[in-house]
Amino acid sequence: MRIGITCHPSAGGSGILATELGIALAERGHTVHFVTFEVPFRLKGFHTNIYSHSVDVAAYPLFRTPPSALTLAAKICEVAEEHEIDLWHAHYAIPNAASALFAQMMLPEARRYAIVTTLHGTDITLVGTDPSFFRITKFAMEQSQAVTAVSRWLTAETEREFGLTGRVRTIYNFVDPRKFTDAPVRRCHFAEGREKIVMHISNFRPVKRVTDVVRVFKRIADRVPARLVMVGEGPERMAAVGVARQLGVADNIRYLGDYENMEEILPCADLVIQPSEHESFGLVPLEAMACRVPVLATRSGGIVEVVEDGVTGALCEVGDIESMAARAIDILTDEAKAREMGVRGRERALHLFNREDIVAQYEALYAEVLDAWRR
Ligand code: GMT
């Protein structure tokens, strides 16, 4: 198949998943064309069967902001026509599904591709439900030939919020268990001696509740020698820095900023913490589980489909700092329990969220969609 993929290329779960999917599809013999505003950050090196096309951003004095959704649509159209694309997979509804739809309409009828749209979470929960985006999000979903969501929770949320005429299918995110392993890594980069390493990885948006990470860590550090490693960048980072200073734990925290090769550092962690307001899936917890790292997360959204409470980590209510700290201390001070959780986490990652199985689900969906589209 000749497949086009559009995604947000910067560090973020939807872009990561789309890129890893494209790489896996190319390995299975499909030709994959990415159309994005910059080269997706996990698309490093040369891959047979993969092409990456960057979108020009038109800066004309009349435009207050560049009409990027239109330039994206124009580029998709150009690539689709030149490379005779069969199917376009848009990751994240806005603007990607809308631009893919516009490009589809611009193509001559005989050249039109089918569209699969994958919803990742905030495109529905935050952006899509904003009144200024609601109708265009709904329209783009209804005009797609298939819509998928990354958890059962997100599927239900989408159906509830949008009352769609068509069906939304759940296809879970996946992890590559060869890349994310428990290979030995150098813990000494982050901690000394018996100090435990607590890790948080995110884009530091308000939904991630990064100040909760620091508050929980303060309680952990009062009882267990520990370091907090914060990975990522975003608007709430300075709030986390401020709370850490107030609580007197600033010296125990290291901020790594944006870091690309997560598989190199994740296995160093003794615990990964993700106290989000809601999380449609939680790719970081899944990658942590694949590395045999227990996860402390909130019982919110689709994350409960990923992390099994008491088995692969712990789930607490959003904002319940005391419970989160108690569960974290429990894991960090019981090595046998932590080890068992790690083992069960990797088993779960391999069993439910295995790269080969999930990619095969997408392939089957593409074949079904194309079959109906060509009739
Ligand atoms: O985490 C983010 O805010 C980034 C966002 C994205 O689109 O890149 O992540 C969403 O998609 C990921 C991949 O499907 C999911 O693992 C995240 O749970 C989801 N984020 C939220 O729902 C907040």
Task: Describe the structure in your own words.
The protein has about 375 residues and is an alpha/beta fold. The chain has 2 domains: about 190 residues, Glycogen Phosphorylase B (Rossmann fold, 3-Layer(aba) Sandwich); about 160 residues, Glycogen Phosphorylase B (Rossmann fold), CATH 3.40.50.2000. Helices cover about 45% and strands about 15% of the residues. It has 13 helices and 13 strands. Helix 2 crosses helix 3 and helix 10 crosses helix 12. The longest helix is centred in the last third of the chain and has 20 residues. The structure holds ligand GMT.
Task: Compose a concise summary of this entry.
By secondary structure, the chain is α/β, with parallel strands linked by helices.
Helix and strand element order:
EHEEHEHEHHEHEEHEHEHEHEEHHH
How does the overall form come out from the CA principal axes? globular
User: SS-based structural class?
Assistant: alpha/beta
Can you tell me the number of structural domains? Answer: 2
Low-confidence stretches: none
DSSP strand tally: 13
Number of helices: 13
The CATH architecture of the largest domain comes to 3-Layer(aba) Sandwich
Query: What is the radius of gyration computed over CA atoms, rounded to a whole number of angstroms?
Result: 21 Å
Distance between the termini: 17 Å
